Amino acid sequence: MKILITTELYSPVINGVVTSIVNLKKELQKSGHEVRVLTLSNEIKSYVTNEVTYIGSLGVGKIYPGARVTILKNCKYLKELMEWCPDIIHSQCEFSTFRLAKHLAKTLRIPIIHTYHTVYEDYTHYFSPNQKWGKAAVAFFSKKVLKHATNVIAPTEKVSTLLQGYGVKQPIKVIPTGIDLSSYKPSNSIQVRNNLRNQLNIPVEDHLLIFVGRLAKEKKLEEVLSNFSRVTLENISLLIVGDGPHRQYLEEYARKLNIEDKVIFTGMVPPQELPPYYQSADIFVSASNSETQGLTYIEALASGLPALCRKDPCLTNVVENGSNGWLFETFDEFERYLEKMLLDQNEYKHLSFHAIKKAYDYYSSTVFAKNLEHVYDDAIVLYQQNENRDCLNQ
């Protein structure tokens, strides 16, 4: 099968969507499929490299940090993709590249599968002064875009329910995003665990909590910092891995809470360098409720880290109370679960074992690609049936 993946962002950009696309492309190619990617260039110039077509674009950061758009629709690079004749398009974003996907799909008479990665309701502060109006705009926009897809992929039940609430009529399939977990196997080496701690001046005897992700307002890291500042356990540190527009505020907030000597901000870390960070830690923490799935949650679980996260529908079937971690709603729950995990070695071993098992059983990139292959086959059949019905009705 020839599969074209379209996305606003691609490597070398680092985020969860890009990571999922890179892993999907690799797994599909391992299964014998031909895969190409269509994305936006970070400059006006268009070009092709390593089966990736970069279309020239303009920055529109005032709409959303890092956002870019293109007005190109007819250029030699798109014509080359048409001549390649893909069987299906798998769209990953709803903006400029979705417009290009629609154009290609209409011309080639092929279906579009779309993965809805982002819960835009949690980002309305970027474009709307009124939250209610912002959510209404998101619902209208999402329904309008997704009517052009033959099938829709939702990473979690939370996203599926949200889309149904928007009035989306297309078939929605819940498929958790897959990750190449081979690098995240937990290490039993004390040296591996302590090397990074020594580099970051973290006491080797400390219990270490870790958050990995973009430092943005919607991640609600203030709650993690506040809870951390109130726990009574001794010998405990917090490692925050990542960067983003909210970093300076969070560093100042940590100083205000008088915990700056126990909270370490690393800045951006390339994905290939992340495994030792997880392996140096004991528990993954998060208070975000803006995730569609949260790939770093899966990376942490695969590394053997139990999760301690704010309860949210996005974590249904990901973090399970008493199995691979705990979900909290109050500070009292946060502290109680934290003490339970860190002070009871049998409890910790139980949670760590099931964290690894859950990650590999449900969230590997191999399982992800196999699930999508079935959706591609079904979408092609459904599209052809709809095309035939339309012809008969003319």
UniProtKB/TrEMBL annotation:
PANTHER family: SULFOQUINOVOSYL TRANSFERASE SQD2
Entry-linked CDD domains: GT4_UGDG-like
Residues annotated as domain Glycosyltransferase subfamily 4-like N-terminal: 14-182
Listed Pfam families: Glyco_transf_4, Glycos_transf_1
Gene3D superfamilies attached to this UniProt entry: Glycogen Phosphorylase B
Name of this protein: Glycosyltransferase family 4 protein
Domain Glycosyl transferase family: 193-354
Highest rank taxon of the organism: Bacteria
